Amino acid sequence: MADTATPNVIRRADYAPPAFLIDTVALEFDLVPERTIVRNTMRVRRNPDASRAAHLELMGEQLEFVGAEIDGQPFANAHAHEHGLLLDNVPDSFELTLTSICNPAANTTLSGLYVSGGNFFTQCEAEGFRRITYFLDRPDVMATFTVTLRASRADYPVLLSNGNLLEEGDLPDGRHFARWEDPFRKPSYLFALVAGKLVALEERVKSGSGKEKLLQVWVEPHDLDKTRHAMDSLIHSIRWDEERFGLELDLDRFMIVAVSDFNMGAMENKGLNIFNTKYVLANPETATDTDFANIEAVVGHEYFHNWTGNRVTCRDWFQLSLKEGLTVFRDQEFSADMAGGATDEAARATKRIEDVRVLRQMQFAEDAGPMAHPVRPESYVEINNFYTMTVYEKGSEVVRMYQTLFGRDGFRKGMDLYFKRHDGQAVTCDDFRHALADANGRDLAQFERWYSQAGTPRVSVRTQYDAAQRRYSVTLRQGYADAPPAARETQKGPLLIPFAIGLIGKDGADLPLKLEGEAKASAATTRVLEFTQTEQSFTFVDVAQEPLPSLLRNFSAPVIVEYDYSADQLAFLLAHDSDPFNRWEAGQRLATRELMALAGRAASGVPLQLDDSVVAAFARVLTDETLSPAFRELALMLPSEAYLAEQMAESNPAAVHAARQFVRKRLANALENEWLKVYEQHRTPGAYEATPEAAGHRALKNLALSYLAELDDPAEAVRLASAQYDAANNMTDRAAALSALLNAAAANGGSVQAQQALDDFYRRFEKEPLVIDKWFALQATQRGSAQRPVIDIVRKLMTHPAFNLKNPNRARSLIFSFCAANPAQFHAEDGSGYAFWADQVIALDAINPQVAARLARSLELWRRFTPALREGMRAALEKVASQVKSRDVREIVEKALA
């Protein structure tokens, strides 16, 4: 299935409108796994806004061409080739009918039309539709679709496609048909069909305007009992979009279908969303609190795409963040509102903290490497490689900055104008920016740089207090410091950075904020400074005492703030800052500073010790009952090993692991009684509840258990974990107990209990694929030891009967978990992890290049590591570069090695 064509660089500057447009599409499918016949009838016309072309060039891959007709007559001037179909001497306007054949059963790429578990599914974003039929497979060609599906009724009793069902009925020879119509123009990447043995949870709801809508969640029959939460999430999403943005569901029905073989999380095909089972199926016995939250967020994300992505779509793939960044922002706001409404800032902050943790650990790392690119990239070789953290997560932060600048009401005005101008169109990031600017009467020309400049900006802060004049000056300076070459070449000038700040007095209370030149102090205790120059000063007046600045509140821009807080100042902010995000941030800065110093000592072989003040700061948070359990769990979680290694001049995973484990053990032993008390206080007896409050209690309790597993004598932790495992009535507690047992076993305690629990876990859940994914992942990410390296465990698990490399979820649960989420073991000095990585990338490349490319990115930052590790990584990259054939993986490894 590999694509061995010479890679061509696609550049945004070369965009040209299509020479032809397609107004209507009528598709007919005769569905047979090894030989599906597709008849595609299109109304085609020349584009009056494009240069006249001598021929019509359609994209097509892995297709067998049967024949072409124009206006009902056979057309001989159609020439099929490896990447499409060329039609010479076509009229200016005509009906084109193409017949072709594809082989869904052999399609292991899971792009286009494929078979999974005996059922048919599609995935067309970004360029999968060309594997189904010949087409102008680009997002700026929008058409209305009518789809007729024909198949064996016994084998495929359910036939689904986009839009509304027009008719269905029987055919001869035990076959049947269904005809669907999507009345809204859409690009081909939003096409979908599903056929198979499925059942649905159904619900009817009324939209805000009183229209009845049919909602369906389709799954395999044995999974029907795990669909209620997905349905509830869909209903919440529909209501939220009506209330927050005035956007109604525009079709008579909305369908979600779950499939276990899927490259992505989910896909927003118009009215027929196809989901990875991981983001649909949940009940208390099989899904964790994190799973429940992720399902709600992903269901929301795909539903919100109905307007931000479908009704208004991308002109070209360089504009991908137009839909993805905007919709990630919308799903983040939805999740925050579900947790805390519009006013509970503490509850909303837990969601904000979780999102920023992901951004810093993954997107900041992307910005620092060879794949660094702007939110709106300038070029690509393989578009599948640009479904990145930058496009999604940084893109979301860019959208959030509009709301920070204009407020909720101003942002809503901009969204309303965006839909009014562009409904039914394929547009650009600039069109979105212009709508927000015009609706709020602002010039946002400078803000465009957020879309075109790569790299993570750094903002250094200097402050000065004049007691006699009661003036406090804050000087901000922006730049990119050590950005990689891929980022530096895009940087043209200073950004417009909304920089939120508060000032805290000696009693821990916020001080009034009055900028020089203002008549009176603001009622708000947080001020958003519009920072637009390379260096800019802001002076607050009538400041009665020297304050402590609370910088970048609520993480108001995706930047790194450099300010030389003392350890005492950070502890003070951790105790008093009224901004929940910055309270958490102070603790993270304190922990990061200490961990980085310890990692340096560990790398040099110097004995490690932790200052008592750090332990005291953690103790205050642990025992502060005024803080929510969810917030305390986040505040007491140390920065990840991957994030810490990123902060080193030369990444040394072993030293980081030694430092982090030392701190965990120190906190465990010093606060043993406090951890035990918290563990007991935050049990959640009774029936499981998937509420944010209950999840917060479980999270804090299970964090306490994980610390207790680090004790010098973990016997009590093993007893507690074993009892929790045996008594658990939910997957959150059962998985947490198993994880604690595995880590205690790594510290030479409870290894018998850990193995017994592992064996029991598999026996209980061997018929639940998503739970067995957890079983693989827990083993791949366990701490391991010199006597029992995790690489040996992973290699053995690859021979397990339940492991299947062709299933993306299973590959991610074992291989990706080890390579990306267990840095100390993956980066073993003997290079065994790198050799394993190379073998798996090569194997996956032959099956599913998209999944292989994701794994390939594990080594893209190889130049940042210690010399010994660099050599092992370079050798592994060179081995992969010499053997892989897909554009997807070649682009990654060649950029890494360049």
Automatic annotation (TrEMBL):
NCBIfam families associated with the record: pepN_proteo
Organism: Paraburkholderia strydomiana
Every Aminopeptidase N-like N-terminal domain range: 95-190
SUPFAM superfamilies the record matches: Leukotriene A4 hydrolase N-terminal domain, Metalloproteases ('zincins'), catalytic domain
The entry's keywords: Aminopeptidase, Hydrolase, Metal-binding, Metalloprotease, Protease, Zinc
Peptidase M1 alanyl aminopeptidase Ig-like fold domain mapped to chain residues: 455-564
Peptidase M1 alanyl aminopeptidase C-terminal domain segment(s): 568-898
InterPro entries linked to this entry: Aminopeptidase_N-like_N, Aminopeptidase_N-like_N_sf, PepN_Ig-like_sf, Peptidase_M1, Peptidase_M1_dom, Peptidase_M1_pepN, Peptidase_M1_pepN_C, Peptidase_M1_pepN_C_sf
PANTHER family: PUROMYCIN-SENSITIVE AMINOPEPTIDASE
Sequence similarity: Belongs to the peptidase M1 family.
CDD domains: M1_APN (cd09600)
Cofactor(s) this protein requires: Zn(2+)
Keyword Metal-binding included in the entry's annotation: yes
Catalytic activity, EC: 3.4.11.2
Domain Peptidase M1 membrane alanine aminopeptidase: 230-450
UniProt-listed Gene3D superfamilies: 2.60.40.1840, 3.30.2010.30, Neutral Protease Domain 2, Peptidase M1, alanyl aminopeptidase, C-terminal domain, tricorn interacting facor f3 domain
Protein name (Swiss-Prot/TrEMBL): Aminopeptidase N
Single GO MF descriptor: alanyl aminopeptidase activity
Catalysed reactions listed for this entry: Release of an N-terminal amino acid, Xaa-|-Yaa- from a peptide, amide or arylamide. Xaa is preferably Ala, but may be most amino acids including Pro (slow action). When a terminal hydrophobic residue is followed by a prolyl residue, the two may be released as an intact Xaa-Pro dipeptide
